[in-house]
Amino acid sequence: MRNSFSRQGENMPGKLEGKRVIVTGASSGIGAAITRRFSAESASIWAAGGFNQERLDGIIADCGAAGAKIDGQCYDLRDARKANDVMSDGAQFLGGLDIMVNCAAMRAHGSFLEFTDEQIDELYEVNAKSVFIATREAARLMAPQGKGKILMIGSIDGERGVPGNALYCATKTSMHNLTRALAVELGPLGLRVNCLMPGTTESERVKEIHINDPERARAKLPRIPVNRFATPEEMAEVSLFMVSDENDFMNGAFISCDGGTLAM
Hints:
alpha/beta
């Protein structure tokens, strides 16, 4: 897949030049778009994917061919302790850390009455516990240098009730409240912790769901005032703003990029 982002002019410095970045969930969807966008802005990146090493390798190859310093591998965060490996591998490759993007996530759609213990464990391992561990390690790297940006990729579902989505909603609420707590605790140390809350975004997986079930897709649109779904690239643009040096006063903030859904 060709990198869709490029800088205008070879000598123009990137907005993230000199920044060392770890992105989880980097092999697909929003995480992949963030990886591509940040690399186009001259960031050095450790890309931590999920279950598709071939897809992640393609993203790394594309970004590397465009001149980025980038590497990475896939980790099964259903064992949340693997987040320690993400951070140690990334810090070793990058030589430190300036920006952490927590984007890895799983979903489990269904009746609350039917969720199994295994589903509960899996979603909390990936969506909550691995985020706690990765963020702790990021803060340990950033605090001694007195600066750093941590971006949580949450969800508008963490701020509302969605039938059939109780487990995912609960895990994203956990991420949101971690954002609030850490903004207060880590802000005095020079760190900034913020959260992007995407609405329905047509990643590869979501687009496939919509193609296979167009009625389900049409049913979502009345809840989106702009009458369309977001793209991963749009989320990457907002993410870039949230971690850039031009945006250093934002801390503990939540941006809902949802076409107006939460405003309804």
